[in-house]
UniProtKB/TrEMBL annotation:
GO molecular function: transaminase activity
InterPro entries reported for this sequence: Aminotrans_3, Aminotrans_3_PPA_site, PyrdxlP-dep_Trfase, PyrdxlP-dep_Trfase_major, PyrdxlP-dep_Trfase_small
This protein's UniProt keywords: Aminotransferase, Pyridoxal phosphate, Transferase
Species assigned in the record: Bowmanella yangjiangensis
Protein name: Aminotransferase class III-fold pyridoxal phosphate-dependent enzyme
Recorded family membership: Belongs to the class-III pyridoxal-phosphate-dependent aminotransferase family.
SUPFAM superfamilies in the cross-refs: PLP-dependent transferases
Organism classification: Bacteria, Pseudomonadati, Pseudomonadota, Gammaproteobacteria, Alteromonadales
Pfam families: Aminotran_3 (PF00202)
Length: 447
């Protein structure tokens, strides 16, 4: 098949997601091929994939085991109705997730993305309280700078103003402060300060009253918000407060799930047990769209034991593509690889190289903070007074020219390299980013 070259007309026919489309039309960034830890542009320019796609391809691109599993599945069962019918791989995958997840998160609802997982989790929390005879427990608490996708539940609980402000009425949700503190700047790994920030929950409860609150939803560390990591005791404190006030705790592990922090889940890293856990992205190594919501046995049993005839639907929710057979095949193959002995140890070893390499950029112009945990990190830039988000996008564009795809969001450059990198790859990525930063600072006259 001949290669397709978009012209001006096709530029406007594809309205890109979460993109400044007008800028893209002037400076299109296209990839047409990917292999291992690299992307390639249509004219053959090689780029390091420094964010594993969008945090979702830790096992690298073109993974042969996953491709073979999808192919085999395609030959057996391409689609199965998601309602009232199922197929063996869906159960195999649910069993595997239940076995991998911390504690008794033994019941899995499938969906197709992190956003759907977030909204599914929020609906599940409300349904649980209603089934327990407490329907007034319907409000939610999220956290400033939290990201839970783009559906109405997710933007309500999410704490990124720009993602909410043009969409009018949202769900009833209140927000904890974010966990970035100036005194923690340039911390390596977990920051020291900030456990007390969990106590802000008490101030919200004083006004809203726990009897009205269904759940607190947070990411173990805020990924899209700029790899903002809470201090060691913060999530334990949040768990204790939720227990004291009879509030569910939901962890959004769409980024932290499946090894990104060096443990299988963020819950394992912090040794804190949520009642509901959402995941997506690396679940299929980004190859097929899939998300999942893992619920505790307490929640599942409560919904299964509702009074009424057994032909009634216990949780009226689901998607045409819930537990899609091809996604299940991709997920099973990905999780098998992620569970290989040594893989997470390798992540922990690479994380040390990553920590050293990213922190070497301290002291470069415009660098205001650097944070890292496992194989995730961010470089926070000073804001341009007139155009606050300009530096990050311009530096990312320069990195592209230097052969590194770098994700920017707000005033952060974010990094989450594939687990299959070599230590030299990580050093090379940051050497090129450092060059881009210095070149850019020179062009704007910053010493
Ligand atoms: C923590 C978190 N939750 C939810 C989402 C939304 O996932 P999706 O883009 O697959 O809808 C993301 C995406 O980055 C995320 O980081």
């Amino acid at each position: 098949m001949a290669a397709f070259h978009p012209n001006r007309q096709s530029f406007s026919s594809h309205w890109l997601a979460f993109t400044s489309n007008r800028r893209f039309h002037q400076q299109p960034k296209m990839v047409s091929h990917a292999e291992g830890i690299y992307y390639y542009t249509p004219d053959g320019h090689q780029l390091y994939d420094s964010l594993s796609g969008l945090w979702c391809t830790p096992l690298g691109h073109g993974n042969k085991g996953i491709a073979a599993a999808i192919n085999t599945q395609m030959g057996q069962l391409d689609y199965a109705p998601a309602f009232n019918v199922s197929h063996p791989q869906a159960f195999e995958l649910a069993d595997k997730l239940a076995e991998m997840a911390p504690g008794a998160l033994n019941h899995v609802l499938f969906c197709n993305s992190g956003s759907e997982a977030a909204d599914t989790a929020l609906k599940l929390a409300r349904a649980y309280w209603r089934a327990k005879g407490r329907p007034e427990k319907s409000k939610f608490i999220g956290r400033s700078k939290g990201y839970h996708g783009v559906n109405f539940g997710g933007i309500s609980v999410g704490g990124i103003g720009g993602n909410r402000k043009i969409y009018g009425q949202t769900l009833d949700a209140y927000h904890l402060p974010h966990t970035w503190l100036p005194e923690n700047r340039f911390s390596k790994g977990l920051p020291e300060q900030g456990e007390h920030l969990a106590d802000a929950l008490l101030a919200i409860l004083e006004v809203q009253d726990p009897s009205n609150i269904a759940a607190v939803m947070v990411e173990p560390m805020a990924g899209s918000g700029g790899v903002i990591i809470p201090s060691a005791g913060y999530l334990k404190r949040l768990r204790a407060l939720c227990d004291q006030h009879d509030i569910l705790l939901i962890f959004d592990e769409v980024i932290t799930g499946f090894g990104r922090m060096g443990t299988m889940f963020g819950a394992d890293y912090f040794d804190v047990q949520p009642d509901i856990l959402t995941c997506a992205k690396a679940l299929t190594n980004g190859v097929m769209p899939m998300g999942a919501v893992l619920a505790s046995s307490e929640i599942y049993d409560c919904l299964m034991n509702q009074p009424g005839d057994d032909y009634l639907i216990e949780f009226p929710h689901g998607y045409t593509y819930s537990a899609h057979p091809l996604a299940c095949a991709a997920a099973l193959a990905s999780l098998n690889q992620l569970q290989q002995p040594g893989l997470l140890n390798n992540v922990a070893d690479l994380a040390k190289v990553f920590e050293q390499a990213i922190h070497e950029l301290k002291g470069l112009p415009l660098v205001e903070d650097i944070r890292n945990i496992g194989l995730a990190g961010a470089i926070q830039l000073t804001m341009d007074a007139k155009q606050p988000l300009r530096h990050a996008s311009e530096i990312s564009a320069l990195c592209w020219k230097k052969g590194v795809y770098v994700r920017f969001g707000g005033n952060n450059l974010s990094f989450a390299p594939p687990f299959v990198c070599e230590p030299e790859d990580i050093r090379e990525i940051f050497a090129r980013v450092a060059e881009a930063l210095s070149d850019y600072a020179r062009t704007i006259g910053t010493p």
